[in-house]
Design goal:
Largest sheet: 5 strands, antiparallel
Strand content: 5-15%
Distance between the termini: 39 Å
Helix content: 40-55%
Number of helices: 19
Radius of gyration: 23 Å
Strand order of the largest sheet: 2-8-9-7-6
């Protein structure tokens, strides 16, 4: 593979070219003392970028947005959004820049995007900066989510700027460079609709179809097909979060992508003790974005996308609403099918492909009661979510002691008998139930060390989560639940 140095990096600016009303040309702020903290070399190679060049002064200039290739036009993107249910018609990239679109050697298009690169016209009084800890959180957790096979934006690098950032205390500053299929979001469509410019809304929808859901272009109603595709992508995404215990923490409409990728790792976390009411974000006082609420919130966000798209769905308002409602109603069945399929896999039972049609399972076994009873058991006992499913595979091999230690409920034995009678495949379970995730106490330990200048804990945590299903000697502490004195745990947006 040919890797690109600065002279051959090509960044297109099709978003800015096709949607100039939603793009403000801007540049990253100069960093007084830039220093590369972490670089995902495998991702760099996938993108066709030379890791050695990215470590050079010119490469750091790209990762900071201060030196971009000829022809690139970095922009701050405009979007709106419902934040905790309240609508803001003008949000946008207050501390972020879209450097441009990069074509990888396989012909796939990626946004190259920065966070913490300085104030933009959308900053809304903020300083536009970011601290080392929150940027490394996104680097570590998004890498862990990617390793789990869940669609996500991916962090390419974190560069320390040498600038101090004032939050509750003075912290070292940093810029995150990430890539995504795009940064189009529900809030992008809300912004276009709020502008009253139907031509802009149509061009945005055409841009999204071309970029993410090209099959919609040949449908009888392309914009309805676009909406249906986003519904399907988001239903699958949130089901996969639920299966691994991922809590996004800030599921505003501006953090709901058109591509179906996970975006914005601000107050995110993974479940420790299983509890649908779990909230980690310090600003989610009402529990709107609790773990168990995530499917309903994503469906609510998709309803907002439907509202924005109504003028494109049909000229008749009532007909447009009916079409949107019909498409939105498929969310629950799509979500349920992906989640049910995932639970079958987690339980080591016969696998079936996700299907939005909720027919009986092909082997004739209705697992609904079995799964429902298990979730009730977990809700009562609050075991460590990740450890429980790994211990369940041990039970399938004949040793029930570990899972009994996690769930000391007398009802567990009856449930185990019902489950074991179905012949679970323990080896298959090990392939879908991770042993290593970015556990909250380990993430905090690593970020605290990195803020003080020691990147060793970050590197060791990444070594574990990069291969989440492969249990390895020497990594026992990365598989262990949080210690008893850890918590109550809170996460923060970092702004």
């Amino acid at each position: 593979m040919s890797l690109a140095p600065s002279s051959t990096v090509v960044l297109d600016h099709r978003f800015a070219r096709e949607l100039p009303e939603m793009a403000i040309p801007w540049q990253g702020e100069a960093a007084p003392d830039p220093r590369l903290l972490v670089l995902d070399e495998r991702l760099a190679v996938e993108l066709g970028l030379d890791p050695d060049w990215l470590r050079s002064p010119d490469g750091l200039g790209l990762l900071l947005g201060t030196e971009v290739p000829d022809g690139a036009e970095p922009v701050a993107q405009a979007y709106a959004g419902h934040q905790f249910g309240g609508f803001s018609p003008r949000l946008g990239d207050g501390r972020a820049l879209l450097l441009g679109e990069l074509l990888d050697p396989g012909g796939r298009l990626h946004d190259l995007h920065l966070k913490g690169s300085g104030r933009t016209p959308f900053a809304r009084g903020g300083d536009g900066l970011a601290a080392v800890g929150p940027m490394l959180r996104e680097y570590v957790v998004s890498r862990g989510v990617h390793a789990l096979g869940i669609p996500t934006t991916r962090a390419l690098a974190v560069v320390a700027t040498g600038r101090e950032v004032l939050r509750d205390t003075v912290l070292p500053g940093a810029v995150l460079a990430r890539v995504a299929a795009s940064h189009l979001r529900v809030g992008s469509f809300q912004y276009a609709r709020a502008s009253g410019d139907l031509d802009l809304l149509r061009r945005l929808a055409d841009h999204a179809i071309t970029r993410h859901h090209p099959a919609a272009a040949t449908a009888a109603n392309p914009y309805l097909a676009l909406f249906e595709a986003v519904v399907a992508a988001q239903a699958s995404l949130v089901a996969r979060w639920m299966l691994v215990g991922f809590v996004h923490g800030v599921l505003n409409t501006d953090n709901t992508t058109i591509s179906g990728e996970t975006i914005d790792y601000g107050p995110c976390a993974f479940l420790d003790a299983f509890d649908p009411a779990t909230v980690y974000s310090s600003i989610d006082h009402g529990g709107r974005y609790a773990y168990g609420n995530q499917p309903a919130v994503v469906q609510w966000n998709l309803a907002r996308l439907a509202e924005a798209l109504l003028p494109l769905l049909d000229q008749d308002q009532e007909r447009a609403v009916a079409l949107a409602q019909q498409a939105l109603e498929t969310f629950r069945t799509r979500y349920a099918a992906v989640h049910a399929d995932g639970m079958r896999a987690k339980l080591g039972l016969a696998h079936r492909s996700p299907d939005p049609d909720p027919d009986p399972d092909p082997d004739g076994t209705d697992l609904g009661p079995l799964v429902g009873d298990l979730l009730e058991l977990l809700t009562r006992a609050h075991p460590d979510h990740t450890s429980f499913f790994r211990a369940l595979a041990t039970a399938a091999r004949g040793d029930r002691a570990p899972v009994r230690a996690l769930v000391p409920d007398p009802a567990l034995d009856g449930w185990l008998e019902r489950w074991l009678a179905l012949g679970p495949d323990a080896a298959a379970m090990d392939g879908v139930n991770p042993v290593y995730i970015p556990r909250n106490h380990l993430v905090e330990e690593a970020l605290t060390a990195a803020t003080g200048g020691d990147l060793g804990p970050v590197e060791r945590l990444l070594e574990a989560v990069d291969a989440p299903y492969d249990e390895r000697p020497g990594l026992e502490r990365y598989a262990a639940p949080a210690p008893g004195d850890f918590g109550p745990y809170q996460t923060f947006c970092g702004t």
